[in-house]
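Sample log: Malonyl CoA-acyl carrier protein transacylase.
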Amino acid sequence: CRHIDLQSAEGPAAMAAVVARELRTGIPEKAPSGPIAWRGGRRLARTLQRIAAPEAPAPRSNGIYLVTGGATGIGAELARILAKRDRTTLVLLGRTPLAGAPTRATLVEELEAMGATAEYLQADIGEPADVEAAIAHIVNEHGPIAGVVHAAGVVDPGLLSGKTADRFAAVLRPKVRGTWLLLDALRQHKQQLDFFVACSSLASVMPGLGGGLVDYVAANAFLDAMAGVERAAGRPFTSINWSVWAETGMGAQPALLERMRERGFVPLSSDDAAAAFTRAIGSPAAQVVIADIDPAAEGVSRHAPAMQVEEVHSEKHVPRVDYVPHPQPARPAEDEDTARQDPVHHLLQRLVAGALNIEASHVPIDESFMALGLDSLAAVGLVKSLERHAACPLPLTLFFEHTTIRELAAYLRKHAPAMWDAGDVQ
């Protein structure tokens, strides 16, 4: 099986040429296990590369940190690491009421004994109102947030064939919806973070390690992709692909630890994980794998054949495929003028222009939102604005599925026809 990542903008001829080449060459014995991406005729594959860990950044005195999923497992361990900073304030976020969870109260006391100010907030990371209230509380009661560790997550063992859509969605919820809501609330409250660390898993880099946990792998792959989006926008978001810890998290299961050792993955001690975490915070990389791996082990080569820890191929060695780009049909100027007179086209231009802080006249009808500079957080805010005009719920991915003013207007014409009443789009 081979996953090929193509760009639709390159047209059918280009995509057909790529697929034909992949079919002709087949899958080599030591082919990369991850997706193959084609960009501008170049064949690209991701590999793991050893990096020299940067020196840990000097911790901020009086820093205020939010840790989701911070009362148990890896989240609690990372909270303990942050508690060692000078005059730290830690806010732990979890779904369980404090009164019914004595271990959470004990952790708060432990963090305070380490010199930190600690608080536990009950909140559902997948509920917009809960996330907004939590961020507002932290900012109003404690001050500006210096960093976020998003460690909330759910594991639901079982094969995909036996899972309902609701079970699958429950696993995605804290990492996918929770990340969107956190970033949106932080943006709304104008928080300037030193770091946002998302706790991902080695399973999203080496999917074979995930076994039947397809939903869990997908949730972590989302964090990895979001890290790239946020870094491209200049924000300090890092996704850490954790290997198994020896004393906590999934590492609390002896059978799992033994399987990982057999495959060439040495479980991380808490001390080693802590040292790596403090350095990863200062890394400029969007995605960092923290693992103790034997590259020569049979299990590693099977699950990560693209793992080239001593050599990373440069782009100049990647073969090209020649093709004739599929031209996009030119639209006459009068067509654009007509579209601009449409009330919904005009509304969309005005909203996008406001998000980008430019004039509405500078938003072409057929220019992609990404090319204009629209980022993921701004897109979520625009969806909320559009929902007020549409008087119906709209998907958060709206601006990524319909990537121009014209495409989005066509979607809204079908799914929110009431917007074409001029009175609804003022």
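Observation: The first strand starts at residue 4 and ends at 5.
Observation: The chain has three domains: 1-45+312-328, 64-303, 333-424.
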